[in-house]
Amino acid sequence: MSGYATHEVRNQPPLMGDFSAWETDAPLRAAVAGFGAAWAVPRLAACGARVGSAHVRALAALANRHTPELHTHDPYGRRIDEVIFHPAWHELMALLRADEPHALGWTDPRPGAQVARAALSYLWAQGEAGVGCPAAMSFASLAALRHAPALLQAFRAQILSPRYDPRPLPPGQKHALTVAMALTEKQGGSDLRQITTEATVTGDGWYALTGHKWFFSVPTADLFLTLARTPAGPTCFLAQGWRDDGARNHLLLQRLKDKSGNRSNASAEVEFRGLAARRVGEEGRGIATILDMAHLTRLECALGSAGQMRQALRLALHHTTHRAAFGQILAAQPAMANVLADLALEAEAATWLALRAAQALDATPRDEAAGALNRLLTPVVKFWICKRAPLVIAEALECHGGNGYIEEHDIARLYRDAPVNGLWEGSGNIICLDVVRALVREPASADALRAEIALAKGGHPALDAWLAAPWPEATAHNARRLTEQLALALAASLLLRHAPAAIAHAYCATRLAACGHTLGTLPASTDCPFIITRAGGAEITSRP
User: Fold this and answer.
1) Helical residues (DSSP H) of 326-442, grouped into ranges
2) What is the full DSSP assignment across 351-382?
3) Whole-prediction pTM
4) How confident is the model over 521-537, as pLDDT tens digits?
5) Where in the sequence is the domain holding 465, given as residue range(s)?
6) CATH number where 498 lies
7) What is the mean pLDDT of the chain?
8) Residues 529 and 402 placed together within one structural domain of the fold
9) Is residue 200 a contact partner of residue 211, using CB atoms and an 8 Å limit?
10) Closest Cα to residue 442, out of 388, 367, 372?
11) pLDDT confidence of residue 514
12) Which of 298, 357, 291 shows the shortest CA–CA distance to 144?
């Protein structure tokens, strides 16, 4: 209508339409093929098209804008402890479950299944991070439930089902089940030895749990693993969200956490008041039991952060290849090209690291050396990728200018989400101390990692120099420095073996040798246009 337009909108990027998160990710495609999961390409291509759709982005925006609501009582005063989600959340959960990032590694017996499943998880991290939490815990729960074969047999098929069933019903009345964890308490945090929740035997294999849990992600879960103290010490238990008689189990959702990051998923503070639960594993061995599960969720943290880095890079490329300043397309300007290429190096390294960890997990049942590598690789990769993600995403946001700081832009949500994977399943110090523990107690894991890195010997002088030098001493004081160096050397080795030379040599020259301390400090010899194009950027020109 005439008279309403005040000006023409120009020199702004178009809205991002549908794209394929699979087809536009050359490193992911190469890693999947190189690590034995090429048979899964049709499934991954379909998933990539789904998570790259404008529809899924719209659902993610809705689920984060209309946050979960806690309803503690019904209109007549009866305690119900329910969480109400926006319909967008339920649609996202149904789409994710159908793609099976929570299940494929267990349901397909072919070699490479864990790699394919990891790629699905990585792809979905680019669609919406919140739904990744219940998927990750459902996937990892089987590692803990192996300590309770009868419970695993009873629930396995429903946990791994590709269906989504949000109805608040007992497990026996549902098509599919979601699994969660409720571990930490106010006084202990990561120190699970400090739990005070008490377990009392009630008979027929059941216990009553009484205590307070500080973080309970996915409080609507059908099943959840938790820790409580018996006379033998901290013990692992499995509880149902709803008892077999249809009533809510004996838990009170005290409040939902007002998180600084992801808003679509609910995290609660909860009281157990005689919670009915069954033991998983030996009494007094609960921490060891739950750590089997945590090892897998740490891999999920790495995959999630790697996927978010890839999406942040994609958004930065979209913005800078469609906007001009000072007479040039942003991405064509040398300073911006340096930043974009550096972001691409970080994202590609994270992809190879995370998928290599998944390959080690995949091979563990068939190869003793892979099992030793898996033990060390997962915490190394988890620490490094989750530490780099906030830096990479903040820089990608800055590529947008002020637009990136506005909540209606996807990059703003990625920025808020970025720190959580560094916290979940052990903050940086906890993870690095676990690396030290593995090196000291399980020398085979150190030998396996050293051999893995040495596969690229002769590929670059900086890596050869690293291989010739002694590792930092495996002590608590050196834990972070040691873990960082292992991650950098492994990433360099993987890139030298699998990525184009321009990528690998730029990474070695700037991560293993002397380099700047901020992104965008690549040397002048770096082929920035090639790196940007490989990352998914269009051919860069100087036209405004």
Assistant:
1) 334-363, 368-399, 410-417, 420-423, 428-441
2) HHHHHHHHHHHHHTTT-HHHHHHHHHHHHHHH
3) 0.94
4) 788 888 888 998 888 87
5) 288-535
6) 1.20.140.10
7) 93
8) yes
9) no
10) 372
11) 65
12) 291
